[in-house]
Amino acid sequence: MASRTFGKGLRAASKANIPVQATARRTFVSALAVRPVSATLSKAALTRAVQQQTRGVKTIDFAGSKETVYEREDWPREKLLEYFQNDTLALIGYGSQGHGQGLNLRDNGLNVIIGVRKNGASWKEAVQDGWIPGTNLFDVDEAISKGTIVMNLLSDAAQSETWPAIKPQLTKGKTLYFSHGFSPVFKDLTKVDVPTDIDVILVAPKGSGRTVRTLFREGRGINSSIAVYQDVTGKAEEKAVALGVAVGSGYLYKTTFEKEVYSDLYGERGCLMGGIHGMFLAQYEVLRERGHSPSEAFNETVEEATQSLYPLIGANGMDWMYAACSTTARRGAIDWSSKFKDTLKPVFNELYDSVRDGTETKRSLEFNSQPDYREKYEQEMKQIRELEIWRAGKAVRSLRPENQ
Ligand SMILES: NC(=O)c1ccc[n+]([C@@H]2O[C@H](COP(=O)([O-])OP(=O)(O)OC[C@H]3O[C@@H](n4cnc5c(N)ncnc54)[C@H](OP(=O)(O)O)[C@@H]3O)[C@@H](O)[C@H]2O)c1
What are the residue boundaries of the KARI C-terminal knotted domain, all occurrences included (predicted)? Predict the structure, then answer.
């Protein structure tokens, strides 16, 4: 996602000679406020960005490491339709990913059916999205029996719970698809031992299913990982690439099931959500304890980060960000970054160990298999929602022009 956003932003800004800062809200960033983006990027960075946009390139040099990247342009819609002309894609589960991937497959014209438990929350959502009971909406078992490619997008806990019923239906010739390596990689815990005579593949979008859908509708595509767990036909990787494009990916990065699940569980617990929430809370609490008002503490912790700095880091990288801020900010941020890194690295190592040894999987299975897991989460969400930081945030967001 980052590379495409970057490329797009770069093209637009270069063309119009617009400084990136023009869109930033209040921020300590000042140095680049009047400099066009093209002038602030090194020639090498510019070349890299252009390479990222070049169509048909399959091997990309990521900071000295060459990796294979597949792209949507090689799989136009007509080719997808021909490739899957004899297939029924049975997409099981209609949560965030089921919704995004399912609607994209349908809009691409593929023969896709949805399988969810009758009259659950997902069934109602699917009906609202125009899936028709008995035509392209069935209960899980019926959908699997009709499918040649079974896309298991149940929650990870439900994949384990329903496996004894699903496995016998995965007969020779079918393909099993996941969007997370969780179930087969941690098979000792999940009991998801895939049949040995079918292809097992993965397409894991690097983002929420809502983003999978939004980017598709915008004519763009999400970055996804692809992997092959078992290749019986010799076509498993090709099928994963084609399905990856069909569900709405722009670029597909090759990995393994193991690496996908380790990095994903690690990332979401770390910088993507858990770690970042912990940092926000720690910084906010100290500011409040030292006498700062809620609005000041929130603005300095979350609002400036998410509205100004993080999008700029996403678009241009950390070196650019350092170069773009005041000399005062730059000196302090560089100095403190190593202290934070040294303090946090042991925590990240502990987290990685907890992912690799299955502790995180066990916890997730235990919690998410409980019949009242939704209610329990709602209680936790309520506690988070009621934290002062997020109540202050609500008030700050209400002042944004678009919310008035
Ligand atoms: N969310 C993301 O951002 C994301 C990103 C990449 C990959 N993934 C992966 O994609 C897969 C799907 O995740 P998700 O977030 O889209 O969905 P999810 O919210 O985790 O799961 C929701 C689906 O599971 C069904 N379900 C739950 N318990 C069930 C049970 N006991 N029997 C039958 N169905 C049950 C729900 O149906 P009801 O409504 O009937 O309960 C719903 O359709 C997972 O492997 C996940 O790791 C997710």
Answer: 256-403
